[in-house]
């Protein structure tokens, strides 16, 4: 199992990127929540990974946080959910928003994610409720979870408003560099959309 990669980004084409490590280029698929926070081509990056081995391919998935990777792995255990659906979920909703949706039986928020139908959303809620409760009951788990960055929160908000992940990424990049609050990023992104 490949647990993480640290190297230089040589190519970025959402959702795929190539990370060169010791002369070997690893093709990695990442959710848009991770992709948005990646440095530019030619810069160094460290990603936590999960390797999916299929009969016809070995696919490496990369994540910016342990919470994203943990949720991805939990989603793969849900009946009928494969890596593509798990990646779509992580691209369309933050880890925190997903947990809230499951706790509140909020099928509607899950079905707003592209590729997630009503039956899949209902199955996710039923099967993930106990897994999320078990993770929260681990002492210190909440203290170890990093707060979502303003960029990640703004990305999740734009996707929840109906923007496609690629469009949300473009709007946030157009909002300008610098340290902004989540609200300021969303305001600037929406002004750029007009």
Describe this structure in words.
- The chain is of the alpha+beta class.
- The protein has 3 domains: 4-63, Nucleic acid-binding proteins (OB fold (Dihydrolipoamide Acetyltransferase, E2P), Beta Barrel), CATH 2.40.50; 66-143, 5' to 3' exonuclease, C-terminal subdomain (DNA polymerase, domain 1), CATH 1.10.150.20; 150-193, Ubiquitin-associated (UBA) domain (Helicase, Ruva Protein, domain 3, Orthogonal Bundle).
- The protein has helices at 32-35, 66-76, 83-92, 95-103, 107-111, 118-136, 141-144, 150-160, 165-174, 182-193; strands spanning 4-13, 16-21, 24-29, 44-53, 58-63.
- Strands 1-2-3-5-4 form a 5-stranded mixed beta barrel.
- Helix 2 (66-76) packs across helix 3 (83-92), helix 8 crosses helix 9 and helix 9 (165-174) crosses helix 10.
Short description:
The protein is globular. The relative contact order is 0.11. The chain contains ten helices and five strands; from the N terminus they run βββαββααααααααα.
Detail the topology: elements first, then pairings.
Blueprint: E1 4-13, E2 16-21, E3 24-29, H1 32-35, E4 44-53, E5 58-63, H2 66-76, H3 83-92, H4 95-103, H5 107-111, H6 118-136, H7 141-144, H8 150-160, H9 165-174, H10 182-193
Parallel strand pairs: 3-5
Antiparallel strand pairs: 1-2, 1-4, 2-3, 4-5
Helix pairs in contact: 2-3, 4-6, 8-9, 8-10, 9-10
């Amino acid at each position: 199992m490949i647990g993480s990669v640290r190297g230089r980004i040589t190519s970025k084409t959402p959702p795929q990127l190539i990370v060169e490590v010791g002369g070997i280029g690893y093709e990695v698929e990442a959710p848009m929540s991770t992709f948005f926070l990646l440095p530019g081509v030619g810069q160094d990056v460290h990603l936590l990974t999960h390797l999916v081995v299929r009969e016809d391919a070995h696919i490496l998935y990369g994540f910016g946080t342990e919470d994203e990777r943990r949720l991805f792995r939990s989603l793969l255990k849900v009946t009928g959910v494969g890596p593509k659906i798990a990646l779509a979920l992580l691209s369309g909703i933050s880890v925190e928003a997903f947990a809230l949706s499951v706790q509140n039986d909020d099928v509607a928020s899950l079905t707003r994610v592209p590729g997630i139908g009503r039956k899949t959303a209902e199955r996710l809620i039923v099967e993930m409720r106990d897994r999320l409760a078990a993770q929260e009951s681990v002492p210190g788990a909440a203290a170890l979870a990093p707060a979502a960055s303003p960029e990640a929160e703004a990305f999740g908000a734009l996707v929840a408003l109906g923007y496609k992940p690629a469009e949300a990424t473009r709007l946030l990049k157009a909002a300008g560099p610098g340290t902004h609050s989540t609200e300021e990023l969303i305001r600037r992104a929406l002004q750029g959309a007009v």
